[in-house]
Amino acid sequence: MSVMMVRKKVTRKWEKLPGKNTFCCDGRVMMARQKGIFYLTLILILATCSLFFAFECRYLAVHLSPAIPVFAAVLFLFSMATLLRTSFSDPGVIPRALPDEAAFIEMEIEAANGNVPQGQRPPPRIKNVQINNQIVKLKYCYTCKIFRPPRASHCSICDNCVERFDHHCPWVGNCVGKRNYRYFYLFILSLSLLTIYIFAFNIVYVALIGFLNTLKESPGTYPFWQLHLFICFFTLWSVVGLTGFHTFLVSLNQTTNEDIKGSWTGKNRVQNPYSHGNLVKNCCEVICGPVQPRYCWLCSHSGQFLENSSCDMSAGSVQTIRAMGTPSLSSRVVLLEVH
């Protein structure tokens, strides 16, 4: 007697994510839907480095040092690795509230606001939390039905709330947030060094071989290294400038979103509660701090968030969440951020 085993299809949480993201590799790779400029980034980097290795490197390795192509290869591989890590990583997308959680939050808001007279606008949906002896406002997201954690924001392109939202970068094809900001910063830093390196040795190559000799001996290579210099020259200013700007933000423990809105400067005159007041400590926290696990996108879909799941969260965070005894997703996410 044969017994037929019917395997039940398991629906992963990333398959039900309502935002505008694309997934592959069983949910391990996450990107925005608009990838055209990301492909342009790959083409520019690959084309520039290919031209350098094909023409200048061969001459410079013989007449100057064989270490020149080796160091260029290290910078190239590191830049590509950090670019792909930034592009394919979950930036820190916060799950939307489940229907029961959304209803519970609505009930809490109505109870707090009381009866609003007809014709009057209800008060804004804001909660106040204290971080480092400073009041920080948590705004309600009408799309995700949650009170966003501190420093989180809703990306209109990906249609998701992202933790410690910095900006949406079309050049990497993804949002830049809490989980992939360090890789984004290392990418633009290494790309700046690579661009300066290639541009400098392009000039050295022309100086050594001579401009007129180049045209006489190998006229076919003239369009290639001319194009090479052109790409490097115009890329240099934008990439180095962007790296300098983000180095400034890292030293202050500030995001691009906060800088644009003037959250800690200008009229508000409010000190940044996340800054340690020390450049080294701020850099260590942003670049070298622990990477937060994903919000269970690889787990099977269920009616509860985090409870009874097997995702790799820290023990302290899970215990804190379970100890709250409330179905409010916003409260759980906020507690994770403040801790």
From TrEMBL:
Keywords: Acyltransferase, Endoplasmic reticulum, Golgi apparatus, Lipoprotein, Membrane, Palmitate, Transferase, Transmembrane, Transmembrane helix
Membrane topology: Multi-pass membrane protein
Any GO CC annotation of this UniProt entry: endoplasmic reticulum membrane
EC numbers for this chain: 2.3.1.225
One term of GO molecular function: protein-cysteine S-palmitoyltransferase activity
Annotated transmembrane regions: 37-55, 67-84, 183-212, 224-245
Enzyme class: transferase
Record's keyword annotation contains Transmembrane: yes
InterPro entries named among the record's database cross-references: Palmitoyltrfase_DHHC, PFA4/ZDH16/20/ERF2-like
Biological process, per Gene Ontology: protein targeting to membrane
Pfam families, per the entry: DHHC
Domain Palmitoyltransferase DHHC: 137-261
Subcellular location: Endoplasmic reticulum membrane; Golgi apparatus membrane
Catalyzed reactions: L-cysteinyl-[protein] + hexadecanoyl-CoA = S-hexadecanoyl-L-cysteinyl-[protein] + CoA
Record-stated family: Belongs to the DHHC palmitoyltransferase family. ERF2/ZDHHC9 subfamily.
Record text about domains: The DHHC domain is required for palmitoyltransferase activity.
Protein name: Palmitoyltransferase
Designated gene of the protein: ZDHHC9
